[in-house]
Specification:
Order of helices and strands: EEHHHHHEEEHHHEEHEE
Largest sheet: 3 strands, mixed
Radius of gyration: 24 Å
Number of helices: 9
Number of domains: 3
Shape: elongated
Strand content: 15-25%
Distance between the termini: 43 Å
Number of strands: 9
Length: 290
């Protein structure tokens, strides 16, 4: 792989004998760009069929212009061992209920991987996070005691793990409302309730300390700040109402998306009139994150 037509094949990225894409210098990119490229490469390879079972290794003999280039030096294998990699491993440990196993992987990577891991999980937070993940991902039966005092939730957005803190996790008896009843409540919310909620919220110290003057001006006329959504803590599809204490303004990406993805996953197969006891995630306060 070359970044321009004058570079040599494999100068920055190359495919090794095992079909893995290797980056020679992770620091060339900002915002973890190299890691994202490597991840997308693995995802792409996983969706393709190769006659030999893997992509062909990079050929170092010919340059792009057709001339013979000098033999490349022995490839320097780069290990992804940044803090970002450690944070991803921590999320994987929570998601799979195997914090110790994923921590060992971070230790084996070396570098700053362990530091990144500990930014997300340490001895004080690991137990609670695993319990939350286990309950919410239905990896084992739910008991009432397990949902008490849990304040963290691990959701999914576009395949990536998202950690939400300062949430309440409770068991609710989810009752599937009729489409007609839900539509009436939704119409009321869209026409008047959301506007009134945002107008009232715009005058609170919490909102004034959180949002820019431009965002506050939008809220004062009943409009969402850019990138934010008003969320029902208990959904209208269940027993939720349009009361202000059931509403919260949430940053859409990734937090609101993570919650709605989870809610859809546990209720999508329910039919009208059906009831089901489910673990429910409720963000606290009126603005999330604070």
């Amino acid at each position: 792989m070359m970044l321009n037509r004058y570079g040599s094949p494999g100068e920055l990225f190359y495919i090794d004998e095992d079909g893995q894409l290797i980056c020679r210098n992770n620091h060339v990119f900002e915002m973890n760009g190299a890691e994202r490229l490597l991840r997308e490469y693995r995802n792409s390879v996983g969706c393709r069929y190769y006659r030999s079972g893997k992509p062909r290794p990079t050929s170092f003999a010919l340059s792009f212009s057709g001339g013979i280039s000098a033999p490349a030096s022995e490839p320097t294998y780069q290990t992804i061992n940044s803090k970002a990699a450690g944070r991803l491993l921590a999320a994987g440990g929570v998601y799979n209920g195997n914090v110790e196993g994923f921590r060992k992987t971070a230790e084996q990577l070396g570098g700053d991987a362990v530091k990144g891991y500990e930014q997300v999980l340490n001895e004080q937070t690991a137990g609670t996070a695993i319990a939350a993940a286990s309950i919410l991902l239905a990896k084992r039966p739910i008991e009432l005691g397990e949902v008490q005092d849990i304040t963290k939730f691990v959701g999914k957005v576009r395949g990536d793990s998202v950690l939400l803190q300062d949430v309440e996790i409770t068991q609710i008896n989810y009752f599937k409302r009729t489409v007609e009843e839900t539509a009436i409540l939704r119409k009321e919310f869209n026409s008047t309730v959301r506007k009134s909620f945002l107008k009232e919220l715009s005058n609170t110290p919490e909102a004034m300390n959180k949002f820019s003057p431009e965002m506050l001006e939008r809220m004062s006329i009943g409009r969402n700040p850019d990138g934010w959504q008003v969320h029902h803590k208990l959904p209208l599809d269940d027993s939720g109402t349009n009361a202000f204490d059931n509403l919260i303004l949430m940053r859409n990406d990734p937090y609101h998306q993570a919650l709605t993805n989870y809610q859809f996953s546990i209720t999508r197969n329910m039919v009208v009139g059906e009831t089901k006891i489910v673990p429910w995630v409720k963000p606290q306060g009126t603005i999330y994150p604070k």
